[in-house]
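Dear support,

We are seeing what looks like truncated structure output for some complexes. This example has two components. We would appreciate it if you could run it in full and send us the complete token output so we can diff it against ours.
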Amino acid sequence: MQKVYIAGVGQVPVGEHWDKSLTNLSTAAVRSALKEAGNPQPDIVYIGNFLASSLSHQANLGALVCDEAGLRGVEGTTVEAGEASGAAALHMGYLAVRSGLVDCVVVVGVEKMTDMVGTEVQSAAVESGDTDFEGMQGLTYSGIAGLLMQRYLDQYRAPRDSFAGFPITAHNNGVNNPFAMYQKALDLEGYKKAPVVCEPLSLYDVPTYADGAAAVILVSQKLLKDKNKAVMISASEIATDTLAVHDRADPLAFEAVRISTENALQKAGLTRDCLDLFECWDTPSIYGMLSLEAGGFAERGQGWRTAAPENMALTGRLPIATLGGIKAHGLVPGAAGIYQVVDAVTQLRGKAGKNQIKSAQVAMTQAISGAAASAITHILRTA
Amino acid sequence: MDENLLLKPARAVGIVGYGVYIPQYRLPASEILRVWSGDEGGTPIKEKAVAGLDEDTVTISIEAARNAFARAGIDPLELRAVWVGSESHPYVVKPTSTIVAEAVGASENIQAADLEFACKAGTEAIVMAMGMVGSQMGEYALAIGADTAQGKPGDALEFTAASGGAAFVIGPAENSLATINAAYSYVTDTPDFWRRQHQVYPEHGQRFTGEPAYFKHVSTAARTMLDQLGAKPSDYAFAVFHQPNAKFPQRVAKELGFSKEQIQTGLLAPVIGNTYAGASLVGLTAVLDIAKAGDRILVVSYGSGAGSDAFDISVTDKIEERRKKAPSTQQYIDRRIEIDYATYARYRGKIVMK
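Here is the complete output from our reference environment:
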């Protein structure tokens, strides 16, 4: 099996791009990633997307995205795994290069949320949960997260503020990232003052849906031109759990996260101590907490002690959301997993500016869909 | 910009008389919060004016027009046009303008039509009146912006959708209490807010109504107007911007370089709500109530769909004697009966009876 390298990354700033279409966004990300990689000829384009069929009434993105990006004729197809679609597309690209079948894959995550507004967006976004048993009952993405957070608070007697570390870390790190939608710092007082969105979740505990696109270029060693800039993918692991939360023996155990984290570490031959940073699924904040526990970074029920801002800050024991995470970026469902990888690559290249983690060599990224019905973990290393 | 984009009539024109009407009922925004969100959250304004059971866009227009004639001191028979801008004309087919024209005593030899352009239909009527008087096809024209705006119960717009209107007799500059030196309009196809045939309540694009809609059009219209005139914000004693809520006009004023003092007289949305086609024009009446001869006023409307009309206005010395001849806008604001949500629901026909 051949090694898989990320030779180029591209992204557009996350935001409400009223005046841009799906392909305006995807093309910008793809072309800038290809340019950075020295314009190799791609064999395949994998597109991470969750909601284009519902929100833009557009499917068949393989043809659309390839054609618009100047790649007519190239193999292209959509990969969907709810909010983790971008990471799932990356996994497919990884398999294609790793197997030796191809030498260059473009992976692009794209989502256009603002073609619709309000309840139309809400009812489309619940599709990452179980439609028959959750969505139909009016349980939204935030609604499920709210139930889990309430359960956590009851079961572990954790203080309500103990979730603040996730948005505080994300927002403080987003200040220096021009690609993040929110570039404003947050403190505990601001967190406490925020209005409740879905009891007990407040405004800072939930993501903001937004438009965006991010791309990475995967190459084999054969096509690797600049090894200094390249980052190697050491592991790419998808695991699944029950789709509906009520089917789980323990709703606070994110089994998909546990399995995918353990498999990824094992494949990469690493322990948790080796990680210099962890681009985790930091929002809803309860999902950040449950990811830390399921991933073995904290004891069950003790995550809230680990999740203190000082532990997760850039200089902490386990830095998360190092360039703003999903909370400060805005949640671009089809692209979030790629934005996470772009941020990790930026860190491993030593190009994170004021947010640079000192001599970062190993990074883990993790995207989850729904209430962690799927978890997709990638481990990246300097090449 | 070399191209001359300003609308300037061949004959100088102005406002000969103005009048306002604001219904007396007030629904505090806190009532809407109480009913729809368990008292939680903020409100975009303090309270809004609500039309009573026997009021609609026609009656509001007639009241405002009568006040305008009281100030203008002209015989309504001298009118050559009656134009009413609104998005709540009582009839979909059958004009508001003919009812108003006959009620105020206009002749039968006139132009009459209803205009619809969301919240800028009233200012568009003024531009048309400028054209008629400025071209000398007529001496006087009546331009009205009035609404009894619809807001879907529970929707964000329900806080602000209000009732009220203003009427302007446009005529030759030499008989005007304020001259309209120039107008400029900026319009694009921007679907931020709409109501289709047979729909009871309008729909809107949430945050899309902000940056790409209100702010783009209001600031482009204002900037183009200032550029073309070679004017700057400090040249104006007052500025009035369309006011769908309290925040938007304050933010656009700040971005354009206008001070709080310049906009506060005409900023009435916090206490009467958004009177749609009436909103910027009712604001202008409040300014004319206190302005002095020589004061310059900038007015910029905004209508969803979308467009803005900007006007450069100079107050003349005829203002002093004329403004006393009809109730002031402040008097209408002070004439206030607070109602609860149930009464509001009845008055505004929100209870389905059959």
